[in-house]
Each structure stands twice: as C-alpha cells, then as structure tokens.
Amino acid sequence: MFRLPLSSIVSSDALLLGARAAGFVLLLSCGGGGGSPSMQAPPPPPPPPANTIQVGQGGSVFAPSEMTVRGGTVVTFQWSASGHSVVIGATCANPGQRIANIENAPFSATFTTPTVTVNTDVPFFCEPHCGLGMKGVIHVTP
Ligand SMILES: [Cu+2]
Question: How far is the CA of 47 from the centre of ligand 1 (A)?
C-alpha cells in the first residue's frame, strides 16, 4: 500500500561519500622539490675504448686476457704499467710477430687481426713475464 523511498536515501549518501573521498586527493600532490644542480653526482668516467687490452694493469697480466673479435679488427694494447712487451706466440719459447718491444707506460700499440675463414686463436704473451703467466688470446672469427 505504501512505499518507502529507500533508493533516494541511498543515493544521496553515496554522493556525500564521494565528495569526501575527492578531498583527500589534493594532499598527495606536494613535497619533493628537486635538488640544486650543484648536488648532482659527477658524470661517470668514459668507458674504455672498444677492443682494448690493458697491459700490466694490476700486475703481470693482460686485462682482459681473452677477447673475441672479427678478422680485420684493430685491437689496441694499452700499457698501464712499465716493463712489458707483447708478442704473438703460442708458447713462451716461441715468439712470433712482435706487436711491441718492452715498453713503459704510457704507451700503446695496435694489432690488426687477420682475416680468417674459420675461428682462429691468436695467442700472445709478454716476454719478461710469460713464465709468470702473462699471456692472452684473441679469438678471431670470420
Ligand atoms: Cu710483462
């Protein structure tokens, strides 16, 4: 016989809750503020040049001691310390092509890898320190 207008009561409550929720959104937008330019970290040092092998960095070693490049690539040997040489050769007693005599840092020498039709290893070593294991190898790919 009679009806309660329940639907209209519910909808007006929902509108009120919606208005309250909207008020909180504004609180989240402040804060921060960027640092001044003087506080920025200095730029990182430039990466080492590609295809470069450090000679004597951290001892009687080549770093890296292995590298893989295609034939015809220029590999740079860069002296980090003094008293090292670079020669091509599979064993300490069998030096082949000389890339550099015993040199002191700073010094650099380049070696262009041969053009190959199959994967070819080019071993190299330092004459004064070969017996200490100062050796490396360039893996050359076609
Ligand atoms: Cu050496």
Answer: 24
